[in-house]
Specification:
With 697 residues, this protein is of the alpha+beta class. The protein folds into 4 domains: 4-126, PAS domain (Beta-Lactamase, 2-Layer Sandwich); 143-252, PAS domain (Beta-Lactamase), CATH 3.30.450.20; 268-428, 2-Layer Sandwich (Alpha-Beta Plaits); 449-689, Alpha-Beta Barrel (TIM Barrel). The protein has 25 helices and 28 strands. Strands 19, 20, 21, 22, 23, 24, 25, 26, 27 and 28 form a 10-stranded mixed β-sheet that branches. It starts with a helix and ends in an 8-residue tail after the last helix. The model has no long low-confidence stretch (mean pLDDT 86).
Length: 697
């Protein structure tokens, strides 16, 4: 049998007995191990001595009056569940202590028994849990996610405070029953949620993620992403579902903003070309199912560029926004409306009927409403502005599948409406496509002609009153083949429309300057002036003066012999800009001549404001000399005006001797025309009027 001492030493707890004065009178073996002291060191040790390395749970030193034995000695009451640490070289050993008083017959404490067990592992686990809980609290506090938990067996739902905050509630007081989340679901989402749960719960999946909408306290719905975990028992039965809700409002707004940037016009709010192309696919699909015709309307505002250039882009933008609103109010909600860019809009009409004739009639009625709406005066700031539109229409049915082709057809029809006087609509027909194909081929041929040097310079001589050649006007011919010679009336207009006038004009100007450089070495040719026609498109180009300077420098042509001929249409542009450009060119030594004077925007202000050196009387007035007394009077007035402003004067289109005599008698300084000399290749001109030539008319 065990002795009392043996039993004492084999107890699974450390036991230390203190006398009434606090001194240790006994300590079993486990107590010695846990306290890190031998029996000799412990017996007789005082509890108030300062060499004990006891610490509190927070790691601070444990004062002597808080030692378990001293607490019992001072209070006479037992102490239970007290945790203290013993600091040693290998760390802190944590002890769970219980202390009991033993009293004598008088009730005085005779001794104190302190029992303690090693709880270091438990303490470490507790600290680890506290750290984890702290981290979790911090994560949840810093997160915008809202935790929740649903006990499926008890049908109890835990809603976090953030769950309620996300929906505009400070807390869920009075609302946090298990069915609250169902009541807050968007009605359209309830069938989806029910179907999702019916699939999730019987399955073996332990994770989930889905989007739905919950009702906010303010009345709107909040889009949330709910993700979480399904806890199951050993048989796979779902016991509870836990998760977090993420507010998707900001993400949805960002997605919507990106979508609008990609598919909508920022100025008018209308769908853009990309959106329209996608919608037209759906329109074609619906047309195939219904068997009905549709129509695509291509609308372009008339004279919009003039408003933009003269009144500023702010007013132009206002007009575009008002036009968009007028179109919205005119077309049906089922019709597609888009802005392609600039002042171009597209309307797609669906369900116009099974026959082409009936569909065309219905489209025509809608177009009439659109033209009327767009044609209404609108207030642009202080300006009451009235505009019109030109509309191209193409019908299509289930057999049409090429969207770009439909847009091109409507665009061609719109240009036909422009050509027919504007403020009207025209339907596309195959002849328009043929004309467009011919136009494209002609443009390609012109580009090839420029690169191959097929555009040749001709010169028509100009003579003074004594019949001496004093200059020439440069004309251009297109030598397309060995025998095909095309005049400027067949390609200059097209060149201006297509933008080819810029490279063509540069080619003509460069070849003219090369001729002037050659003439400079000839006694006869060196005194001649050379007039070169300049397009309004060239004068609009801010790089034009620099380009002319480069040509002059590269060829060595004398600039004072170069006359740039402008038509009066150039003065319909920005006067300040054109005037500045003309002065910049004049500073290089170049002179300007005003062509076709009296036929366009004639104004004395032009003669006063612009740096002109010569006026050219239009052939229409010269032709009627001797036939129309009014024409003769106009010619006399122009000559007198030119003299007043000290301008040279040139009459063109002189074909009869009577015209020549009238002009010379009237004081015209020089003239040109078939009577005096026909246009000829520049090489022939140089041969005819150079030092070895005749030199007279």
């Amino acid at each position: 049998m065990f002795s009392v001492a043996a039993l004492h030493d084999n107890l699974p707890a450390g036991v230390v007995v203190h006398a009434a004065d606090g001194r240790i009178v006994s300590a079993n073996r486990l107590a010695q191990e846990l306290l890190g002291r031998s029996e000799a060191q412990l017996i007789g040790a005082e509890t108030g001595a300062g060499d004990w390395n006891f610490v509190r749970e927070d790691g601070s030193p444990l004062p002597a009056d808080e030692f378990p034995a001293n607490v019992v000695l001072n209070t006479g009451r037992k102490l239970s569940g007290f945790v203290a640490g013993v600091a040693g070289p290998e760390g802190i050993c944590w002890l769970l202590c219980n202390a009991y008083p033993e009293v004598d017959q008088a009730g005085s404490v005779r001794q104190v028994v302190v029992c303690f067990t090693d709880c270091t592992a438990l303490k470490n686990t507790q600290q680890s849990l506290e750290k984890s809980e702290k981290r979790l609290r911090l994560v949840l506090k810093g997160s915008t996610d809202a935790p929740w938990d649903w006990d499926l067996l008890a049908d109890e739902v835990y809603y976090s405070e953030r769950w309620w905050n996300m929906l505009g509630y400070p807390s869920g007081d009075g609302l946090e029953d298990s069915g609250a989340w169902r009541r807050m679901l968007h009605p359209d989402d309830q069938p989806m949620i029910q179907e999702y749960l019916a699939d999730l719960l019987p399955s073996q999946r332990d994770g989930f993620s889905l989007e739905f909408r919950l009702h906010h306290k303010d009345g709107h719905y909040v889009s949330v992403l709910s993700r979480g975990y399904v806890l199951r028992d050993g048989a796979g039965k779902a016991l509870r579902i836990s998760g977090v809700n993420t507010d998707l409002t900001e993400r949805k707004q960002t997605e919507r903003h990106i979508y609008e940037l990609a598919y909508f016009d920022h100025l008018t709010g209308l769908p853009n070309r990309r959106f329209l192309i996608g919608e037209l696919d759906h329109v074609l699909a619906r047309g195939r199912r219904s068997g009905q015709y549709c129509a695509l309307l291509y609308l372009d505002l008339d004279n919009f560029k003039l408003l933009n250039d003269t009144m500023g882009h702010d007013l132009g933008d206002r007009l575009l926004r008002q036009t968009a609103q007028q179109l919205r109010c005119t077309v049906r909600h089922s019709d597609q409306l888009a802005r392609l860019g600039g002042d171009e809009f597209v309307v797609v009409l669906e369900g116009l009927g099974p026959s082409a004739r009936g569909a065309a009639a219905e489209a025509d009625r809608v177009v009439a409403k659109i033209l009327s709406a767009v044609g209404q005066p609108c207030q642009l700031g202080a300006l009451l502005f009235k505009t019109t539109a030109s509309i191209g229409i193409t019908l299509f049915d289930s057999n049409d599948t090429n969207i770009e082709k439909l847009l091109k057809q409507a665009d061609l029809a719109m240009y036909r409406a422009k050509a027919d006087g504007r403020n009207c609509a025209r339907f596309f027909d195959p002849s328009m496509q043929d004309a467009a194909d011919r136009r494209a081929a002609f443009e390609a041929a012109m580009r090839d002609g420029l690169s191959l040097g097929q555009f040749r310079l001709y010169c028509q001589p100009q003579f003074d009153s004594l019949g001496r050649v004093v200059g020439a006007e440069v004309l251009v011919r297109w030598q397309r083949g060995d025998r095909e010679l095309i005049g400027p009336d067949q390609f200059i207009g097209f060149a201006e429309e297509s933008g080819l006038i810029l490279p063509l004009g540069e080619h003509i100007l460069r070849e003219s300057c090369r001729a002037l450089a050659r003439w400079h070495l000839d006694a006869n040719l060196g005194r001649l002036k050379l007039a070169v026609n300049v397009s309004v498109h060239q004068m609009r180009d801010p790089r034009f003066p620099a380009a002319v300077a480069n040509i002059l420098g590269g060829t060595g042509a004398p600039p004072e012999r170069l006359y740039l001929e402008l038509t009066e249409s150039v003065f319909a542009e920005d006067m300040q800009e054109i005037t500045g450009r003309m002065h910049e060119l004049c500073s290089q030594g170049i002179r300007f001549s005003l062509d076709d004077f009296g036929t366009g925007y004639s104004s004395l202000a032009y003669l006063k404001r612009f740096p002109l050196s010569a006026l050219k009387i239009d052939r229409s007035f010269v032709r009627d000399i001797g036939v129309d007394a009014g024409a003769a009077s106009i010619v006399e007035a122009i000559i007198a005006l030119a003299r007043k402003f000290k301008l040279e004067i040139v009459a063109e289109g002189v074909e009869f001797e009577a015209q020549r005599a009238f002009l010379f008698d009237g004081g015209c300084s020089s003239m040109q025309g078939f009577l005096l000399g026909r246009p000829m290749p520049i090489a022939d001109f140089e041969h005819a009027y150079g030092t070895a030539g005749i030199g007279h008319a």
